Amino acid sequence: MTQLNNKTVLRKITQVFSGSFFSSLVNKYHGDYRTQHFYTHSHAIALIYQQLSSTEGLRLLTCKAKHSPKIRELMNVPSFSQLSRKNGSRPYQIFEDMYYHLVGVAKTKLGLKIWNQRFNNIKIIDGTIIQIAASLAPKLEYKNDKAGMKITTLYDLNKSIPEKVNITPAKTNDRKCLEGLFDNPEALYLFDRGYFNYKLYDQLTREGRRFITRQINNAHTQVIEEYETYNENLKDRRIWLGKKDKRAKNHYREVTIFDEKNGEVRMITNDFSTPAEQIVELYKLRWNIEVFFKWIKQNLRIKKWLGHNENAIKIQIYSALIAYLLLSLFHLELNPKLSITSLRGILQMNLLEHEDTITILSG
What we know:
Blueprint: H1 3-6, H2 9-13, H3 20-28, H4 40-52, H5 57-67, H6 69-74, H7 80-89, H8 93-109, E1 122-133, E2 141-143, E3 146-156, E4 161-169, E5 188-191, H9 198-206, E6 210-214, E7 221-227, E8 234-241, E9 252-259, E10 263-269, H10 276-284, H11 287-299, H12 310-334, H13 340-350, H14 356-362
Parallel strand pairs: 1-5, 5-6
Antiparallel strand pairs: 1-3, 2-3, 3-4, 6-10, 7-8, 8-9, 9-10
């Protein structure tokens, strides 16, 4: 391998796959069992290249590799059919564990954004669905001839990273996708009304976990006490949730805001000490996870599937999340004035160039 290609931008970004941790994952899950050519190391780098270069599909990826000496020196990319088979059969857990390893690295290195002095640990939970025609993945069909996988994400607002994900068939009920996401008793959790569930609220309250969520429109409530506010468009009440025979076990707080744009917006929380105005502002931060989902779908390759079984789809999703974390860490290392989106654009065109190229172009 040439000295130049040893120092390409792609090599620098993906050097984590050359370390002992990734090798231990390959051994743990027998990722290279009976492999003669396309090893897991090349598989990982190929998928990260596919993500960061915005290469549409496996055919184009293998075509690029066939006609690019630089790519062939960096990784062994097999034929389309071989690559497709490996996506479907190589254990996705290798990529899953690598993703969580990088989450740990990112938590250590990325700066903390303090949204206010009391809440320096804010988590947002939401899900998004990646669809495909049911004819291509009949086992994942969920409605109207559509198949899909659901990505339920725990987003660390203070670090701006997806801290945990649960990847399930799209037909899985939202409330069943929350396993392991409420794991920090010190955090404040924000989530939408799709997760409305009295038992969940009571469980979180019993475990001492604070949350703010949107109230559903037809919720049955009984006012126990109304608190004074100094805003005629703001109401703050202690309530019972549910009818007498199906009532939540704890009192909750309902904060209602009125405005011309959104009309009436009702929020439920088990936090009785934070001012009502702040509850409203905190819940608005939930929109950050929507921005994250939009960024991922626009800038990485997850809208077009590279395989049609759960294993292949999970490998693709974890590869996209790994690419996002590697990009965030690379952005931090360069500390450039340009945004992470602009950096991704520069990377897309220069992945196979000398690593100094990015330092020069990013200023």
